[in-house]
Amino acid sequence: MASVSNDAATHRGPGRARWLVVLVPYVWLLLFFVAPFLIILKISLSDTAISMPPYTPVFEGFGAIGDFISELDFENYVFLTDDPLYIQAYISSLRIAVISTLLLLLIGYPMALAMARAPTSIRPTLVMLVILPFWTSFLIRVYAWIGILKPDGLLTLLLQTIGLMGPDDQIQIFRTDTAVFIGIVYSYLPFMVLPLYSALEKMDNTLLEAANDLGCPPLKAFWRITFPLSLPGVIAGSMICFIPITGEFVIPDLLGGADTLMIGKTLWTEFFGNRDWPLASAVAVILLLALVVPIMIFQNQQKKVA
Amino acid sequence: MGLPFSFQDDFGRNGAPMAKTLGPVKRKFSPWTDPSAVPFIRFENITKRFGNFTAVDNLTLDIYEREFFSLLGPSGCGKTTLMRMLAGFDEPTEGRILLQGKDISGVPPYRRPTNMMFQSYALFPHMTVEKNIAFGLEQDKLPKGEITARVEEMLKLVKLEQFAKRKPNQLSGGQRQRVALARSLAKRPKVLLLDEPLGALDKKLREETQFELMDIQHTLGLTFLIVTHDQEEAMTVSDRIAVMERGVIVQVATPAEIYEAPNSRYVADFIGDINIVDGTVKKTDSALGAPGAVTIDCGGLTFAAEQECQAVVGDNVAYAVRPEKVRISPEQPADTSVNAVNGEVWDIGYLGDFSVFIVKLDDGRVMRAAQANVSRLVDRPITFGDRVWLSWPLDAGLVLTR
């Protein structure tokens, strides 16, 4: 009998430990994602007020549930659809995110492929080089781009020195969409290269030899074998870049011009410029909803791969 | 003509050769003995170096049409490199490869009339079995109908018709191996290259597949070149075997010649089980190159072999005899002057079909004798510690000069 109860105890032990392991990330997500989101959602349904905090709370304790429900209003959301500024900002953000992601794929794929085909001994070094920019603050790196791109910056100097540009000409990239694309592609490249590399690196090279052997020339073999097999990496990299780019604020703010419309910038203006917290929260909620769809696609794809 | 009982039902599922539908009767095939025969593939003074390492060293080899040819050797002997050069994945550093008399140097792999079955199978994981087999045919831009027909034919050949829509990861190891075979055969290559094709299969399945490979090769009339380190596999399937060591070919011959008349210690030792002792030539009954008995003194024991004499008196040679050719008996043989030794049974290895007796001679040396277990007696007449005599006829032994 003793041995039986012992068995039961040893069986319960790991069971509990397993629960703890599962529980910790969920508690984390609950505290730091779900709870703040609910707060934002609550604020988005409130009215603006000139006070501290600058909105009329709609929920005061459990006794006031009736009041809360009756006071809920979607006026902020309605306002978002009324003013074309917001819709244009969303569309412009998605456009910039799509173009940036395509550029990232175009630049990141050959890089990842070259890394995956490099001799095994130098691959860790190459991976380290890709991660190297993270050793400096993101903000400093974006400021550095200002120094490069501004009209009297390093790029102009370089072009003048090699004679591609007259001494009085200046390059007009800073404070345009082009500068935003340069900044985004530069900042997000590691997030594109690493998933692509990990997908390409584990690919069996004999598959390409087999394709060659069966009469398929190398370039065609890339499209028939390498690319389809790297699709999970392509999707992972694209999602990891696309989602945060859509909400990007720092890069368009520092490198973009007045006409660079991005939802992150709009959100910032509403929060800190207009101090309209409820409207800003509504903008944030809609942004989240707009991103949930690609996230779901991503998850679905991951499940299919697994 | 019906049998009194059916082997098919009793043994068919195990794939015993007796039960399977046998292919056409094999005929004696030996184009290499015909001096007028033109080789299908010729490796001409091939050398391949990787940096400082010489993988293949000035190697010349002829392979004939419809031959099932094996390259046999330990890992690193250059056999795979040789095959990869024929497939076009590596180019020889020196020498040239002729296919049907034409130099194929510089022809890329996708333009060579060879197809390869890879050791890892290299099936495309994102394609179904059907698509994998069709891949090569699609590259040739064959009409759709023809591709479908050929794929069906191949699926039937490897008995995978009901698995056409599966992906490789939904198949067992044996099934994947069949898909790989079907894919490499689909284009009807002039030469099929097989790189350790059966390595990943368990013994029973491997043996079954070996016979299937032979049938397929025979039915389709193709030339097969197989690379293997498994001597049993090479013996079973091949018309001829090339035994390789460190980039050179040590011996090219039929399986029986390789086994019964190895040309060197290396080949004798690599193929099968063998007793080898060092000795010096005491007497030769014939001139160099003529057949006759050669008598060897091996540290007090006198052994003799009847063969083409390749040594003169006083030469240091090796004497070899296969365990299954050694007779083991408790009684003293009539003539104990030559090829007869006396010792104690040290150990017995019971292998089911055979028993191997390890006999410790009085001078401390060890010899092995194998005996077929022809009766079902469990109590053997010879057991541990028994004094026994080992003896063998003159034509069983071998004198190895290399």
TrEMBL record, chain A:
It comes from the Bacteria. The keyword Cytoplasm does not apply. GO terms for cellular component: plasma membrane. Keywords: Cell membrane, Membrane, Transmembrane, Transmembrane helix, Transport. GO terms for biological process: transmembrane transport. The chain crosses the membrane at residues 20-45, 89-114, 126-148, 179-200, 221-245, 277-298. The keyword Phosphoprotein does not apply. It is found in: Cell membrane. CDD domains: TM_PBP2. Its main location: membrane. Belongs to the binding-protein-dependent transport system permease family. CysTW subfamily. This is Putrescine transport system permease protein. The lineage of its organism: Bacteria, Pseudomonadati, Pseudomonadota, Alphaproteobacteria, Hyphomicrobiales.
From TrEMBL, chain B:
This is Spermidine/putrescine import ATP-binding protein PotA. Gene3D superfamilies: 2.40.50.100, P-loop containing nucleotide triphosphate hydrolases. Keywords: ATP-binding, Cell inner membrane, Cell membrane, Membrane, Nucleotide-binding, Translocase, Transport. NCBIfam families: potA (TIGR01187). GO terms for cellular component: ATP-binding cassette (ABC) transporter complex. It catalyses: ATP + H2O + polyamine-[polyamine-binding protein]Side 1 = ADP + phosphate + polyamineSide 2 + [polyamine-binding protein]Side 1. Its EC number is 7.6.2.11. The complex is composed of two ATP-binding proteins (PotA), two transmembrane proteins (PotB and PotC) and a solute-binding protein (PotD). Belongs to the ABC transporter superfamily. Spermidine/putrescine importer (TC 3.A.1.11.1) family. Transmembrane segments: none annotated. InterPro entries: AAA+_ATPase, ABC_SmlMolc_Importer, ABC_transporter-like_ATP-bd, ABC_transporter-like_CS, Mo/tungstate-bd_C_term_dom, P-loop_NTPase, PotA-like, PotA_ATP-bd. The lineage of its organism: Bacteria, Pseudomonadati, Pseudomonadota, Alphaproteobacteria, Hyphomicrobiales. GO terms for molecular function: ABC-type putrescine transporter activity; ATP binding; ATP hydrolysis activity. Part of the ABC transporter complex PotABCD involved in spermidine/putrescine import. Responsible for energy coupling to the transport system. It comes from Neorhizobium alkalisoli. Residues 41-271 form the ABC transporter domain.
